[in-house]
Amino acid sequence: MDNKNKKALGYGVVSAATTIVFILAVILLNVFASKLETRINTKIDLTNDAVFEITDETKNFLATLDKDVQITVFMDKQTLNDLGSEGKSIVEVLSKYEQSSPHISTVYANAETNPEIYTRFSNMYKGDLTSYIAVVTCGDKIRPLSQNDLISYSVDQMSGTVTAANSTEQAVTSAIMNVINTTTHKITILETDSYSYIATLTEALQANGYEVETVDAITGEIDPASSMVILNTPTVDIYESTAKKLSDFLNNDGKLGKNVLYISSYQQSEMQNINGFLSEYGLKTGTGRIIDLNTANMYTTGNVYSIVSTTLHEDFLSGVQDKNLPVFIPTPGEIETLWDSRDLRETKVLLGTADTAVAIPHDADLTTLDLNTLAQKSYPVIAMGSKHSSLNALDRVSSNVIVMSAPDICDTMYFSSVATNNADYILSIINTVNGKEQAITITPKSLSTDMLEASDSQTRGMMVFAVIIIPLAISIAGVVVYIRRRHK
Fold first, then answer.
1. What is the CA 215 to chain-centroid distance, rounded?
2. What is the bridge-based pairing of β-strands 186-191 and 134-138?
3. What's the order of all strands across the beta sheet hosting 283-292?
């Protein structure tokens, strides 16, 4: 063999070897990529609200996680993924937890074909798990999650349109914080006949790691371990014994450090015992309802009007992600602060209207009433009265009474909307007064848009192109180069 042929053969061997090495590299790269799929995000979420992503707050929290947490879903992964945008969004969000922390693992188990899956948790949870879609566990602590925890729904009162929102991150992050935390904050709800329902608020509190119990306002006892009591829009005035029960709870044997959230309504008549209790903390409720004469500050849906406010108190913004979003306040009632400060007590307006608002008297004849004759000013919508142990703000302990005059401020329509600060701000207030600094407030994300990603057929096409066509083309090119060089 002459030098020319030897040289050509050398080129051919190098070309063929290069091609083989490249093909093997592509194959190994694909195998490696498939193994990393659960730990690396391979999809791009281009929805307006990043529906299938988790927030930086959750990612930062997961980065500090040092305990192993397991998320068990009582459904086959593919079955859940095929349940429209709701199911797909749950699967996608859960995958982000595994990708964000080596301490998170997700297990999918079809409860229909493997009903014994529930018995694995019988020693950790004494209730019935069959009505739940998943559980989050760490050691011997467990937090069950229902479908409504992961997906929330709201109804437009004018059009009747039902909108779904993904609240998986809110529920799962809170559940993780709950099962890894040895300290649990407890809230007691005093049960009465009420003008409004607070199921959405209750679910949000539970999703944010609070233990919530309900006791009868008259006969029930408030657990001393509770950090907050909620009294929601009673249709009649509370008994003096109930008012004393609230005062004693706040006094806490002189140690203070307790909180009461009173939700009032313009539908209530004069509440003498409630106002007697509130007056200790410099607050009072009235029977009028507030509207804003400036239509730019009003929002109407059907027969329901809301005042739109952005006057959020700077001391309660730690859990608010977008401070520029407004709070929608449906049909608020009157609140009055009796003083700014007195001795070791002070009041604060946490949310107020613009100075173009008026109070419509409870017994006003709206057919003849001229709204322009009413006094215009800024009215409190959420106010807080505090009793402090000392004047030194750095080391004092306080008991607080928060009055919220618009019960529907916690309605699902507003709480699940990404266009309002209702959920963020209300939960931030509650978290702040309860000293729940680790809490992360996460707003459900609307599922009105879909993720832009490749379909299954497109994915298969790209795989064929990457794994077969490209290496084959390189091989052919190598052969052609070899033949051409050999015949030069």
1. 26
2. unpaired
3. 333-337, 283-292, 357-360
Closest alpha carbon to 337 in 349, 355, 323: 349
Q: Are 324 and 339 in contact (CB under 8 A)?
A: no
Distance of CA 259 to the CA centre of its chain: 22
How do residues 87-103 score in pLDDT, each as one tens digit? Answer: 999 999 999 999 999 99
Q: Which residues of 457-474 are buried (b: 16+ CB within 10 A; e: fewer)?
A: eeeeeeeeeeeeeebeeb
Q: Are residues 358 and 311 in the same domain?
A: yes
Q: Which domain holds residue 252?
A: 187-435
Residues 197, 333, 411, 136: is their CA dihedral positive or negative?
negative
Q: What is the mean pLDDT of residues 179-184?
A: 79
**403 and 255, same structural domain?**
yes
Q: Kindly state whether residues 76 and 208 are assigned to the same domain.
A: no
187 Cβ contact partners less than 8 Å away, ≥ 6 residues apart? 205, 210, 211, 212, 213, 226, 227, 228, 229, 230
Two tokens at 153? 């729904």
CB contact at 8 A, 262 and 268:
no
Q: Are residues 294 and 332 in the same domain?
A: yes
pLDDT in tens, 362-417: 888 888 999 999 999 999 999 999 999 998 888 899 999 999 999 999 988 888 77
217 in the same domain as 142: no
Mean pLDDT of 223-233: 97
The domain total for the chain is 3
CB–CB of 209/174 below 8 Å?
A: yes
pTM summary value: 0.68
